[in-house]
Write a structure and sequence with these properties.
CATH architecture of the largest domain: 3-Layer(aba) Sandwich
Helix content: 25-40%
Largest sheet: 10 strands, mixed
Number of helices: 9
Strand order of the largest sheet: 3-2-1-4-5-10-9-6-7-8
Radius of gyration: 18 Å
Structural class: alpha/beta
């Protein structure tokens, strides 16, 4: 089944560290003409209002990207770009389960999260990490570590998605991760994008892959040996990956998912955007 990015949820605390994640979520929602929900939990009304005022707004951002007239009315966003935008306050529900319940009730198909150091999710989740939400929701999750070079410029909306790294193994199945990568390239019309498919092992243990014919000339297979996290991080540096796409599922197989340590370790050490896709 082809991965879709029609219903995107972005938990935020309106801190500057989350601006990149906000821009990536908005860019994808506009491209898919889908729904973009900004999810917030108001605790300190005065402080939150100050952060909200300093944080870029949807209409201002779209205006800077040349997609909307300055000063346009809120209701003009959907008419101009075909994307529905909602801002939701969880009203004090600060638990990971509260966020997950909201995501599940609204049938999201992508969560976009800004992460910083070990805080992971926005501060209003009381120290819970972003990986917990991704794991418990079972959804594709795009992580944007603070300070990284994303593939969307928040100021201009310009796309820079030229290099994707996809680690693969027999288990978990890489099919969903590959489908998500292909869908992302198609959705964003990333005509310069190249896939770098990494297998840690030997040629004999590398899984067979079914890629669209139009991507054949834009795909490179890498077969390397070494410690898993070290090798993925080194490969990401080698190909200067704009995005790492990883299949996640359980502790079996070398990609031991968000329940284990591999995806989290890669996210922390590679310091690059990472799309985690349940197998």
């Amino acid at each position: 089944m082809k991965q879709t990015f029609q219903n995107i949820i972005h938990p935020t605390d309106y801190e500057k560290a989350g601006i990149s994640a906000f821009a990536h979520g908005l860019k994808l929602a506009v491209a898919s003409k889908g729904r973009f929900t900004i999810l917030h939990n108001e605790q300190d009304e005065l402080a939150d209002e100050a952060r909200r005022e300093a944080f870029p707004g949807v209409r201002d951002t779209l205006a800077n990207w040349g997609l909307l007239d300055l000063g346009a009315a809120p209701e003009s966003v959907e008419e101009a770009v075909g994307c529905r935008v909602s801002k939701i306050d969880l009203a004090g529900n600060t638990t990971v389960s509260g966020v997950v319940n909201f995501i599940e009730r609204h049938e999201a198909d992508l969560v976009v999260l800004g992460t910083a150091a070990r805080e992971g999710l926005p501060r209003w989740l009381k120290g819970s990490v972003a990986e917990q939400v991704a794991q418990k929701s079972g959804l594709a999750t795009l992580f944007l570590p603070h300070g990284t070079r994303g593939f969307v410029d928040p100021a201009t909306g310009e796309l820079h998605l030229a290099s994707l790294l996809i680690p693969v193994d027999l288990y978990p199945s890489p099919v969903a991760a590959l489908q998500a990568a292909v869908s992302l390239i198609e959705l964003l019309d990333a005509q310069e994008a190249r896939l770098h498919i990494l297998h840690i092992g030997t040629h004999d243990t590398s899984p067979a892959l079914d890629l669209p014919a139009w991507l054949t000339d834009r795909t490179e297979r890498l077969t390397l040996q070494g410690a898993v996290v070290d090798t993925i991080v080194a490969a990401a540096d080698q190909v200067d990956a704009d995005l790492i796409v990883m299949a996640t599922e359980g502790r079996h197989g070398f990609l031991d998912a968000l329940r284990g340590s591999t995806t989290e370790a890669v996210l922390r050490r590679a310091h690059r955007p990472l799309l985690a896709v349940p197998a």
